[in-house]
User: Fold Stage V sporulation protein AD from Robinsoniella peoriensis.
Amino acid sequence: MTQIAGQQSIKFDKSAHIISAASIVGKKEGEGPLGKLFDLVGEEASFGENTWEEAESTLQREACQLALGKAKLLPTQMRYVFCGDLLGQLIASSFGVMNFNIPMFGLYGACSTCGESLSLGAMAVSADYADYVMAVTSSHFGSAEKQFRFPLEYGNQRPLAATWTVTGSGAFILAKKGGHARITGITTGKIVDYGVKDSLNMGACMAPAACDTIYQNLMDFNRQPDDYDKIITGDLGYVGQTILIDLLKEKGFDISRVHMDCGIEIYDRETQDTHSGGSGCGCSAVTLAAKILPNVEKGAWKRVLFVPTGALLSPTSFNEGQSVPGIAHGVVIEHC
Amino acid sequence: MTQIAGQQSIKFDKSAHIISAASIVGKKEGEGPLGKLFDLVGEEASFGENTWEEAESTLQREACQLALGKAKLLPTQMRYVFCGDLLGQLIASSFGVMNFNIPMFGLYGACSTCGESLSLGAMAVSADYADYVMAVTSSHFGSAEKQFRFPLEYGNQRPLAATWTVTGSGAFILAKKGGHARITGITTGKIVDYGVKDSLNMGACMAPAACDTIYQNLMDFNRQPDDYDKIITGDLGYVGQTILIDLLKEKGFDISRVHMDCGIEIYDRETQDTHSGGSGCGCSAVTLAAKILPNVEKGAWKRVLFVPTGALLSPTSFNEGQSVPGIAHGVVIEHC
Assistant:
């Protein structure tokens, strides 16, 4: 029987179960509204390392270790690790997961990578290519600012549309059975380019991609927004959320009642000076591990659509005057 | 029935057929020993664009277009595109494949990405997630030197162990049936780090990873080197080839009779001043499309093990004194 659903989705015959999840974040995220929900909050941004990049590798390593510990599994039992981060050539991931000695697929989907890794991981488990796989993604405020914007020491001003890159990593273990949350379908995103060139307004760059993926998911699965307890984007922030809701209304769907954005959830707008919200691969990953999955696991939310969103730019493409296209990968997660 | 083979391989119940392949290269590659085999040779390195990065995007776009044309298929018929390149945040791929509007998985495995994309593409087709998928990878001498080393204008000297990044892109279309070459199995690589820190001797950085993947492939499939007509690494070059053959001899396998390296094939050592050979995501991809597949398709080679090799470094990790670990993804391709 075909598992192909509509134009760009898969409805799995056999779900991939999320049997373990772990989150580790920095101090600022620990002080935010979700602070008490994370597994580990670092005391300092360097996590004991000499560079921001090594710190981010440590985040990934610790998140994986925590997820393995919770599942009482060993790295040798993981058939694949699907991993990614925001840095050029994925160095946070490579140096982060290297010592686990797990066959690795390196992924890049900007801040949508958590959705990409869960999608490919679920495809592998559902197709019997693996008993267990791990999916891990991360971001770090220090390494991301250095990579994409200015040295931290420069102390540049940030416009109100800007988001704050989350320091954190989320790791997930997928298996054929177990746990109380499972991935029942995916909608893989296309690149959507509205021609926005402002790398400090990533919400606007990514909202059209989120709209495209959510719309396609509703069409492919023949669902209405209310068929989901939550439709959760990765890191659109306040600016992007408004655009997304407007764009989907134009297409005939009102998601305002069920929409939630990890970038809005993770920081307190009034006190944490993070402007439009949080962003980064880590943002959706740690929110999934710390807040979304527990709600699905206990049945408070029966079915959610998790849609991490990514802005596809590099310092080079930005400096060369290219636009910032977006991409968003949808993952349907249900209580079981 | 399980498709899991040994420790890190898959033996597909249903093979993914490579029904179309296309290659496009730069002038230097066109002047090399494989020159007449490529589908398209560019007159100038910029391929009509303003920047090296846009040129590389054009390479990917043209390679995809050629592969689609050969298969008489439309972009809308592709369920997924699995793509990657060497640049930070995969900008060559994002801007290259964007306009095809195909659901996209962005991948990074350094120069092993061609193997990663074929592996994940074959997994998707074999599991009935897609009728057709496209896999495309690229590299460009200009964009890679700028990204990893020095501005071209600086005219730095290159040590004899250095390789020359291939300007080129190879695109492949996978389907459930058709064509005369099929992917029957894969061996997904782990990251292998021998602690080499010389980014101008990538052959030495990658040879241990190639050894690990080839050894594991032979063990997982219970094969001897002679069970393959060719064991083909991506871009070890002359230096890496010697190391690989020595390392595998220590593990009890002599592959010297069947070993071939795309980096050695693509340039003429005597006349093209490319030192240890060619490298880059494009090197293995264009050699697969132009030389390897035609030999498999006509049955001259019944079964080959194609092992693109990647060096996992970034300018940042290198400048911070990190080592250069390697990874290699094995793809078993057979005549049919």
